[in-house]
């Protein structure tokens, strides 16, 4: 019997590649998507497409409305930054940071994992090609793993959890090459923070810039549809 793993799945490049890695490692996949009131709600549809294509055993979509707290351009009436140079991205905390988002999502994943009897939780955080978020760092993953094993019945009884962050030290081009090697169809994914109602990516937000640069440096055509060329 395959060991179970809960995989946080947003529908973007990193989380989808993480799902492909978990599948390649032989896990029985349980995908978890959090609808937190994000403006780019279209990513939920992308997560559904990826989960279906990757043959997960179950895909749960949980609603936690972080719009009630605000504090982020992804959930509040704050403009999404556009056309920032790659050298600037990651230097300062962008307004797209959602307060404690990964902590909240991992906590939900931990609860589901304990209920399922899964001891592995996968998250697609990356500390190389990202926007400078504090909850994408290795130190955060280590700290949450300690918390998981202190705060759960399974943890204190010796059935410990491992928080898997296979992309943490990978560049975006290497992430994309890995996904392609594992058979991931990136046309199913979505990255843009500010897509059009028709689902076209803006091409100018930080997420689009990081994605486009990653595909270009990987020498692979980006299948995303953009408003700009």
Description of the molecule:
This protein is of the alpha/beta class. It has one domain (4-218): HUPs (Rossmann fold). The chain has seven helices and five strands. Strands 3-2-1-4-5 form a five-stranded parallel beta sheet, with helices on both faces. Helix 6 (172-181) packs across helix 7 (206-218). The mean pLDDT is 93.
Write a concise keyword list for the protein shown above.
229 residues, alpha/beta, Rossmann fold, 7 helices, 35% helix, globular
Whole-number count of domains: 1
> What is the architecture at the second tier of CATH?
3-Layer(aba) Sandwich
Going by CATH, the homologous superfamily would be HUPs
Strand order of the biggest β-sheet = 3-2-1-4-5
Determine the strand fraction and express it as a percent band.
5-15%
Number of helices: 7
Principal-axes geometry comes out as globular
Distance between the termini: 47 Å
Low-pLDDT segments, ≥5 res = none
| CATH topology value | Rossmann fold
- How many E strands? 5
Helical coverage, percent range: 25-40%
């Amino acid at each position: 019997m395959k060991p179970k793993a809960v995989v946080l799945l947003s529908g973007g490049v990193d989380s989808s590649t993480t799902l492909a890695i978990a599948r390649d490692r032989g896990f029985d996949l349980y995908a978890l998507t959090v609808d937190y009131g994000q403006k780019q709600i279209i990513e939920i549809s992308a997560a559904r497409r990826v989960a279906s294509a990757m043959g997960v055993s179950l895909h749960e979509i949980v609603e936690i409305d972080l719009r009630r707290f605000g504090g982020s351009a992804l959930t509040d009436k704050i403009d999404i930054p556009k056309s920032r140079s790659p050298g600037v991205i990651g230097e300062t905390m962008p307004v797209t940071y959602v307060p404690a988002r990964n902590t909240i999502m991992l906590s939900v994943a931990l609860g589901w994992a304990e209920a399922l009897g899964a001891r592995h939780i996968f998250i697609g955080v990356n500390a190389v090609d990202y926007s400078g978020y504090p909850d994408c760092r290795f130190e955060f993953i280590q700290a949450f793993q300690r918390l998981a094993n202190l705060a759960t019945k399974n943890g204190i009884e010796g059935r410990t959890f491992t928080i898997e962050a296979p992309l943490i030290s990978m560049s975006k081009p290497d992430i994309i090459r890995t996904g392609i090697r594992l058979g991931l169809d990136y046309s199913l994914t979505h990255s843009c923070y500010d897509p059009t109602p028709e689902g076209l990516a803006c091409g100018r937000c930080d997420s689009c810039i990081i994605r486009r640069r990653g595909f270009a440096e990987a020498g692979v055509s980006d299948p995303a549809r953009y408003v700009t060329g």
